[in-house]
Write a structure and sequence with these properties.
17 strands; 11-stranded antiparallel β-barrel; mainly beta
């Protein structure tokens, strides 16, 4: 967190150094908050490069919207693999914390005024802490351990197609596909209730991609005034087929709205509520067989309502002209999860964009 704040401060300082006698080129509230993808089109021939860093933190567990302790999970939640050799009747391994870091590189290009093409690649780092309980049915802890996976995620290709552009209002379609470039066969060492440490295929949330071609769609509306802007986006991810391990991730739907206010020619703030719903995993990877909730296809997905606050800084002249640095911090205000499942506690997004 300290590194992220320092990086944001340095980027803002660079922008401020170029503000003397600046003439406004682009309003800082001309784009949606940095957590919104594919929010705007470009003029013919324009190019934009972007980098986003997103960190999501999760801890504790929910069933629906009710908290459940690790001890209760370990003694009451049925293990779907119970009855198989070496498998306990309940979930004897319980996650307590998870952090996901995502580095996203994007490029946008407009071959015409009515369509903008967008590509985005990503690199993921997942870290999870877990408790292992002794074999049996009590609450005696055998120990704790951590797992981690990292690597290239899925690559996304999209087209933003203008439908309406009238004055300060615009509407466009978002259509694309997610390519299965992220691994779904990552492994990690675990501590079992039998006090063994095998290397096994990591559970679903620790994998780096969906393993399938996914259809991306959405529609975005935005309107801007001199000092105020607002908009909304409906987006979805639809899994088109089972992957090579015979499962597919649940479909996802996001509804987001935002409002921004320009404080000065180079600075604006924003607020953004979001509703997300994610389906359960369909099918099963036969190599993911562990007495832990993250190995259970039905214990994935749910509904979340979040609220995020943001800040945008844009350079007006010189080296930083049309370079945007933005920060957004969000927290869930309601979660109803297919659980037991760890709840999200915060999402931080730091981004840089440069259009020319």
């Amino acid at each position: 967190m300290k590194f992220i704040i320092t990086a944001f401060y340095c980027c803002v300082s660079i922008v401020l150094c170029a503000q003397n006698n600046a003439t406004t080129v682009t309003s800082p509230n001309s784009h949606a908050p940095i957590g919104v993808m594919g929010d705007h089109l470009h003029n013919k021939g324009e190019v934009m490069f972007s980098y986003r860093f997103m960190r999501m933190n999760m801890n504790d567990n929910l069933i629906g919207n009710a908290e459940i302790s690790p001890n209760k999970i370990a003694t009451t939640v049925v293990n779907m693999f119970a009855g198989m050799e070496g498998m306990p009747p309940t979930l004897r391994v319980v996650p307590t914390n998870m952090a996901m870091n995502m580095h996203m590189l994007g490029v946008m290009y407009a071959p015409s005024d009515w369509i903008t093409l967008m590509g985005m690649g990503m690199y993921l780092q997942n870290d999870m802490d877990l408790i292992t309980y002794q074999a049996g049915s009590g609450t005696t802890e055998l120990g704790t351990f951590s797992t981690n996976t990292s690597g290239i995620g899925d690559f996304k290709l999209s087209a933003l197609v203008k439908l309406v552009k009238k004055g300060a209002s615009s509407i466009h379609l978002n259509v694309g596909i997610s390519l299965p470039t992220g691994s779904i066969t990552k492994t990690s060492e675990v501590l079992t209730p039998m006090n063994m440490k095998p290397t096994v295929r990591a559970p679903y949330p620790m994998q780096l991609g969906s393993g399938s071609f996914d259809f991306l769609s959405g529609i975005t509306y935005s309107r801007s005034y001199e000092n105020f802007g607002w908009g909304g986006q409906l987006s979805s991810t639809l899994s088109l087929a089972d992957n090579k391990e015979d499962y597919r991730f649940g479909n996802k739907l996001d509804v987001s709205a935002w409002a921004s206010y320009r404080i000065s020619s180079w600075l604006s703030t924003s607020i953004r509520p979001t509703l997300s719903t994610v389906g359960q995993i369909k099918g099963q990877d036969d190599d993911i067989m562990l007495p832990v909730q993250t190995a259970h296809p039905a214990f994935q997905g749910g509904e979340t309502i979040s609220l995020a606050l943001g800040m945008n800084v844009i350079g007006q002249t010189g080296f930083v002209k049309n370079q945007r640095v933005a920060l957004e911090y969000g927290m869930p205000i309601y979660q109803n999860l297919n659980g037991p499942q760890m709840k999200t506690t915060s999402v931080l997004t730091l981004g840089w964009q440069y259009a020319f």
